[in-house]
Amino acid sequence: QVQLVESGGGLVQAGGSLRLSCAASGTILSINLMGWYRQPPGKQRELVAIITSGGSANYADSVKGRFTVSRDNAKKTVYLQMKSLKPDDTAVYHCYVNPAYPYGPDYWGQGTQVTVSS
After folding, report:
1. Cβ distance 107 to 98 under 8 Å?
2. Residues pairing with 97 in the sheet
3. pLDDT tens, residue by residue, 52-82
4. Nearest to 78 by CA among 52, 116, 47
């Protein structure tokens, strides 16, 4: 089993910045894939950014150039640095990991609320 603990959400004005963190624990030696998804109010969950154990990252078009995903493999922690935030970024942000991707199960964090005011 894998447990995920997220932190860093909150309320910020448009143009501001936030940094999310997600630490994984449990009976895992390494994690192939880590990242972040978000669920805006009344909408489906969508990909924000994903990063492999080797550091290769992919981003949703809507956040490219503003968000940066990174990870610390030794700490089994993934980060999301968010800059130039917009009201459309308001959502519950969920941490995602798949230790054995593409062969193992997905694990999700409970989510942290990010609210961007205009």
Report:
1. yes
2. 34, 107
3. 999 999 999 999 999 999 999 999 999 999 9
4. 52
Report pLDDT digits (tens) over 94-114: 999 999 888 889 999 999 999
Apex CA 40: angle with CA 37 and CA 45, to 5°? 40
Question: Where are the alpha helices (H) located in 3-89, listed in sequence order?
Answer: none
Cβ count near 10 (within 10 Å) = 12
Residue 74's Cβ-side half-sphere holds a number of Cα atoms within 13 Å equal to 0
Strand stretches in 63-105, DSSP E? 67-72, 77-82, 91-98
Q: List all residues 6 or more positions away from 41 whose beta carbon is below 8 Å from its beta carbon.
A: 90, 91
